[in-house]
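Q: Sequence in, structure out?
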Amino acid sequence: MTSSAVAQPDPRGASGARAQDRSQGGESRQLTLVTGDRVTVDAQGKPVAFRPAKGREHIPVQRMSDKGHTLVIPADAHRLIVSGKLDRRLFDVTELSRPENLRAQRDGLKLIVGYRGKQAATAKAEVRDAGSTEVRRSLTSLNAESVTTPTADAPAIWKALTDRRAGGERVTTAAGIDRVWLDGVRRASLDKSVPQIGAPEAWKAGFTGKGVKIAVLDTGTDATHPDLKGQILAEKNFSAAKDTKDRVGHGTHVASIAAGTGAKSGGKFKGVAPDAKLLAGKVLDDDGYGDDSGILAGMEWAVAQGADIVNLSLGGPDTPEVDPLEAAVDKLSAEKGVLFAIAAGNEGSGAGTVGSPGSANAALTVGAVDDQDKLADFSSRGPRIGDGAVKPDVTAPGVDTTAAIPSGSLIAKEVGENPAGYATISGTSMATPHVAGAAALLKQQHPDWSYSELKGALTASTKPGAYNPFQQGSGRIAVDRAIAQTVVADPVSVSFGVQQWPHTDDEPATEKVTYRNLGTSDVTLDLKVTGTGPAGKPAPAGFFTLGTDKVTVPAGGTAEATLTADTRLGGTADGTYSAYLVATGGGQTVRTAAAVEREVESYEVTVKHLGRDGRPAVYADSTLYRFGVDSGDPFLSPQVVDGTAKIRVPKGTYVVNSTVYNDPDDVTKGADWIARPKVAVTENTTLTFDARKAKPVKITVPDAKAKSRLFSPDYVVEEANSAVSFGWLTESPADIRTLHSGPKITDGSLAQHWVSTWSKGASTEYDIAVGGTVKQLATGFDRKFSTAQLAKVKITMGSAAPKKKGSITAFPFLPTQGGGWATSIEQKLPGTRTLYVSTADKAAWSFDFDQQGPADADGWPTYEANYQVGAESRYKAGKTYAKTVNTGVFGPLLDNKNYGIVREGNDITGALPLLADGRGNAGGMLFSSAKTVLYRNGKKLGQNGDPVAGGESFRVPAGAADYRLTTTVKHSAKVNPLSTRVDAAWTFRSKKTAFTMLPVSTVRFTPAVAADGRVKAGKTVSVPVKVHGAAAGKNLKSLKTYVSYNGGKTWKKVTVKKGRITVKNPAKGKAISFAAKVTDKKGNTSSVKIYSAYFGK
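A: Exactly. Output:
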């Protein structure tokens, strides 16, 4: 018998964690944290269970969730995250469970480790010696390495990265370790021209990009495309793909916008800098995703190859912290003089949506406009997260842009080629190479210019639109103006930072703008500033002012002007103010964007933590959650120094959640969980959390010999149409004491829950889930349960394959909680497990069965069959219930409600379990092969290697047509010798529609089969047969059934009488197979064949 705090994952081809999820093919996953602990997430990415790494069973784990976003943070990692040494994304299970991250991490943990100081070499050696850790890349620009560690070696890498000898501070980064990042995933900035920016005028002036190198770091480029033939000087692959070929089409499209010759179109689709040369770095794979370290390596390679401009039409979410890509952009720009043109992103019109690395200071960040200079709806907006700085810097055409595309690429298939060899697509990806190409024209004109002069000229010479700086930067680039630009401004945008509330005593903030004259004649500039308030209305008179309204900039020299923001003048309108400083003279215009954050009403919050000895806590952590946050991170975790946390926060309602550890050097020796579930911050606020007042937690089950396997308490707070949950995962209730702080909450917005699992012997367990709405959190908790207060659920677990192990996971549901966390305990199959479950507080339970397969390469168990044992149900105390799972006959299940085949718009998708067990429990097995084919009007429309449940959708034409959908799945007899092959087919007529279940049916055979999949050989039996779906009941037109005793080589028709067929059981060791064909009264047909349904014995 083994135990783990985990809900087991579903194998490929089975389904997710809950009845609907499992049947519809959502695959639950195990995520390995850098500590070695594992989290199981369901099909929607929601974490449902936790498995500690060996030796970490007693380390408590914090969890916090809001809006479906969950962090799972072991206690020994929290301080490192707060101090900025450890990337919080490493514990963000919502982020880690994104499909692209799951794919990127399938070979192990991918990290970027930064080093520092004299002990860097020693630290590198220890990291490399951590198990089978492999150094994938050396990233010299950051003094870092990207490493891959097999998940089995995660505890070893955690040991190498941390130091437990720092007395009183528990865990720090090891000597020589600077910072540890997730090697995250970026994607192409593509949303589902050249004359516009003035390029022809630049060409006429002789500037075509000749002699300039543009690096395009993307999905690769098609060097055989006529528009790029001879343009590519070098190419290299940094992605997970096998070669540099562009199978997506994105990189080719981007490269041809920047420097395509337009040869295939007779020059019609010529790029901005057709005589520039390209360096093609493939940093995104054949699905359009790439890891941070590959992109970093591509950036370093491009610089080493002599790139003048680097185009990055890619990105990912930004955070207030500086990530590795942002750091590299800034460092390479400053040290090598290379200009990085980077897409702002396609996250739409919300504030603060500009992605990384476009958020880097040095980046020339590009938004998108259409051919009428209208800002694209998808174009990401500023201000930059964290400091309110101006981003993007400029805009460029990025809507319906036609450029080169490789025939047969993903984009060519998706949008088509028109004309051949070209595609029209949109995104800031398309806007960015317009800017890179424009920069190449300027670089040809001014070969001695560094990135700052190029960026300055392009931002200074833009054409403004009717938008503020956070929407368009300085405006849409105009290269015809840029080539005539001799005066540039430094900085290209001005940030005054945050001016603290209240503003009546604000000191006016002043910044210098330096104008640099790169020409041979003096230029006199007239200066004017216009400001805009947070609501888009003009800023008050005098809010933005100039020290002078005129400057003369000598040839080859500089002149300074001062810009002042007086935040005393905003009245009650707090928020972000922006401005344009426009300098005109000498036939040119210099535009400079500016911004200041007039802080909203805010206060200092101080949280003092006292230990059990009454002194300031040596080690504590604290997290504040702010309700009502539309953008940005609502979880705020200040550093705790000498027991005190201090943070400045906007006026509002907060949760304050803290932990005081009894032993600062050993987090396993008890923790005091103290929380103020609601505090209205309307003034400077000080809270004192005194661990001496916390009380112990005790849960008692009927059998004193039962051992605690999982304790998972939590509380949920609601406010302003949002909710947040804080909780813990520990082995035993004895690990934690609790304390409520603050007044009672009487509006029904607070709930608290207590979940625990206990086991005795190999086949008995106690599952407790209680809780609900409370007026205050429990200060201590003591609850005793008798057998009479629990329901007894006996679950028979079948297995037709020998020497198998399996488990039942009891998932709790409480009205105020939704689903709770759970644990599972493996035992031999076939077998029976007896669960005693709590019934108080309207608790409901869902039981999941998992059949264990061979251990994976890391020594962790795998799971080859998964079933959801009945729907979420409530049980009565004192009653006994019996359930059976994983017995035959296994076959398709549908009800045209939860399970079936769906059409929505022009997509047809299967959501139908093909191997539901004989009791109708939805789920499935690990398939060895699967094939699904869709025909339209007799012609094959599409095919994939997925089962009809959980497979990809088929995109179909809108018009009405006759369809035939076929699917075949097979699995190994070593997994289960029953139903080793299932064939199913359906015909129906369909056209474009809103979400609807299509009229399909199936037939189920439900004989009595023993737990080992056997029946008495040669006996004549009556087998129930039932039609499910569209043909059920009065809708049935015809039903034909068949049996086979030779593996489906020949079939014998049998007649259905009163819902049953009479058959002779197979001989000992032999199998019987079933088949059926059904037609409903509207002419829709369905058929099914189930091979080796059961065996004789």
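The longest strand covers residues 707-719.
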